[in-house]
Design a protein that fits this description.
Length: 300
């Protein structure tokens, strides 16, 4: 491996797509806290988030290695360390696999077998099935591959409970349905780059107008799905109010995008809002959970 200077550490760190990993760890943390009647044990909380985070970072780094050629073509990725030559492919791959092995081992030793197994499947699903096959094979790549990205709150839940419950599956479903309108908004803005890289993203294969319709339909479906935690009494009125307000905001952006003749600017605003939406939606889940515990006297 290259000498580990401060600059090289920075390059390795950038391989992990930190902003994406932070969102993954946050949703996994919410899954953990929702699964606990109060607070989870400190060791499960720390080692669970560490293992899940390392596995997510591993998947991101493998994505850099596999997509080096694609990244060199696309404007938004051409400065990544693999493309710029700051890191060698062999060094990056060793780093990525080491992160994955360490993350899965931590979950296996300090958390539980089910969480380690599901995290391994998620890593394989993203780094191999999505990145190496689906991304290049079908315009439904982000839908089919979205299962790996939707796993973190479910993984957090299983870390605490050792099982997969209905509530965990609902958290998974929310992110699974959120992923297509989130990513297709970006794909509209970057459609020419995806076409140049020969990646069959939906705006490339079916056109922008069709993609805008799909974003709107998925956003409507997402609004419905986010009502489910309240319907099954997993969450209460605080979450419901937040989910409705955030859902109306997402629908507003999706409708604006659907109507836009020049969609690039609106597409990026929709993409940006989708990240804000998911973060705040899960924050509402968390606030609602502990507000209900407080009302029931858990903290008294």
């Amino acid at each position: 491996m290259t000498a580990l200077t401060l600059n090289s550490w920075s390059q390795y760190y950038s391989l992990t797509k930190p902003k994406v990993v932070y969102l993954i760890v946050f949703t996994a943390m919410v899954g953990m806290l929702l699964a606990a009647e109060g607070l989870p044990s400190l060791d499960i909380f720390v080692f669970g988030l560490l293992g899940i985070g390392l596995a997510a970072a591993s998947g991101a780094a493998i994505n850099h290695v596999v997509d080096e050629h694609i990244d060199s073509i696309m404007e938004r990725t051409r400065n990544r360390p693999m493309v710029s030559g700051d890191l060698e492919q062999k060094s990056a791959l060793i780093f990525a696999l080491s992160l994955g092995a360490l993350g899965i081992s931590i979950l296996l030793v300090f958390v539980n077998f089910l969480t380690a197994l599901l995290t391994f499947f998620s890593l394989v699903g993203y780094a191999l099935i999505y990145t190496m096959y689906l991304k290049r094979a079908t315009p439904q790549n982000i839908v089919l591959g979205g299962a790996a990205g939707a796993a973190p709150p479910l993984l957090g839940w299983t870390a605490v409970t050792g099982s997969v419950g209905t509530e965990a599956l609902l958290l998974f479903l929310i992110i699974f349905v959120w992923t297509p309108p989130h990513f297709w908004a970006l794909a509209i803005r970057r459609r020419e780059e995806y076409a140049k890289a020969d990646i069959p993203m939906l705006p490339v294969t079916h056109g922008v107008d069709f993609t805008k319709i799909q974003i709107l339909l998925y956003t409507i479906l997402l609004f419905v799905v986010t009502m489910m935690p309240f319907i099954v009494q997993m969450s209460g009125l605080i979450y419901l109010a937040g989910a409705v307000a955030l859902g109306i905001g997402f629908l507003y952006h999706a409708i604006r995008l659907y109507r836009a003749d020049q969609p690039n600017v609106i597409a990026m605003k929709t993409f940006g809002y989708s990240i804000f939406y998911l973060s705040l939606l899960f924050a509402f889940l968390l606030v609602d959970h502990y507000a209900r515990l407080f009302i029931r006297g858990w903290f008294l």
